[in-house]
Amino acid sequence: MRAVVVKKIGEPEAVEVLEVPLPEPGPLEIRVKVAAAALNPADAAVWSGFFASPEEVEYTGLGLDAAGTIDAVGAGVLLKVGTPVIVFDAPALRPTKAQAEYLVTDLNSIALAPEGMDLTLAATIPLNAMTASMALDHLPLRPRDTLLVTGAAGAVGGYAVELARTRGVRIVAQGRPEDEEFLRSRGATWFVSRDEELSDAVRRFVPEGVDGVLDAAALGAPALAAVRDGGTFVSVRFDTLPAPERGVSVRHTAAGPEPTRLAHLSALAEVGVLTPRVARIYPLSQAAEAHAQLTRGSLRGRIVLVP
Q1: Do domains 2-127+256-306 and 139-252 have the same CATH topology?
Q2: What is the domain partition of the chain in residue ranges?
Q3: Which run of H or of E encompasses 131?
Q4: Which CATH number is associated with domain 2-127+256-306?
Q5: pTM to 2 decimal places
Q6: Counting runs of H as helices and runs of E as strands, what totals does the chain give?
Q7: Nearest to 34 by CA among 16, 22, 46
Q8: Distance between CA 152 and CA 165 in Å, rounded?
């Protein structure tokens, strides 16, 4: 089969497509025929050497998110071949991962795909929606409390706005001026432009500061300044965590395999509560070009590879 891998640290040009052995599922594992796999910043962390050097092994696979159909099952698996699933392939360093024609993973990493949804869209759900959901769980917010979401039109931020709305939270969404209409349609109570000084802009609507921040844009200290004394700040990146001040609790969140949560998020997408977004689709053969586009940013929605 073909798989997207890196053999050495470098730029996106280090990404290549190799012919590798077809993996076989072991006990409590399934093999998925991948219909689509999404790109995420975590992929760039692999080929740039943030996690570990691929030079320590022959090659390292890329991809955390996939959607496809079950192609084969290992011992103890009751799911049927042909079942559509979404996959959160969490381990960062393995020889082959989600960006491949086939993927072997365990039962804790999958959920049924949203019924009726194109699998290209469904592939964008696992990592980003899981991250947003887990981050919100770190924020002790009650209905009518206020939450600032930075980078609210991004992949994690967009899901965070939609999930926070289901909890009855009032949301200050930060984004580009052209994002305002989308964010209000997804549940934002107020909108602030990323071109404004963040704390001052937020306090126009919430003079005392918001009860919590989900810092999806990894702004750090400028976002912390918008939190009221004693509030909560959560970031999706540990390397941009600001120092705690004014009694504000500062936390980091990272998504991990939780099949029940993933199934719940898939169900929310199925009924339209979550809005998967695909910005651009590339064939697997153009993986290096797709990863180069990922580093350029500016897209709304995920880049997706299709075998």
Answers
A1: no
A2: 2-127+256-306, 139-252
A3: helix 126-137
A4: 3.90.180.10
A5: 0.93
A6: 9, 16
A7: 22
A8: 13
Tokens for 20, please give them: 């590798």
How many Cβ atoms sit within 10 Å of the Cβ of residue 237?
A: 15
Q: In which band, very low, low, confident or very high, does the pLDDT at 11 lie, cut at 50, 70 and 90?
A: confident
Q: What is the CB neighbour count within 10 angstroms for residue 283?
A: 12
* Alpha helix (H) residue ranges in the chain: 41-47, 119-122, 126-137, 155-166, 180-185, 198-203, 221-224, 259-270, 287-296
Residue 277: Cβ within 10 Å count: 17
Q: What is the dihedral of CA 112, 118, 120, 121, to 10 degrees?
A: -80
Q: Dihedral of CA 190/196/199/203: which sign?
A: negative
End-to-end CA distance of the chain: 10
Pick the CATH number of 139-252 from 3.90.1150.10, 3.60.10.10, 3.40.50.720, 2.160.10.10: 3.40.50.720
User: Given this model, what pLDDT does residue 7 score?
Assistant: 84
Cα separation, 84 vs 68, whole angstroms: 6
With tokens 């931020």, the residue in question is 157
Over the stretch 70-93, which tens digit does the pLDDT of each residue have? 999 999 999 999 999 999 998 767
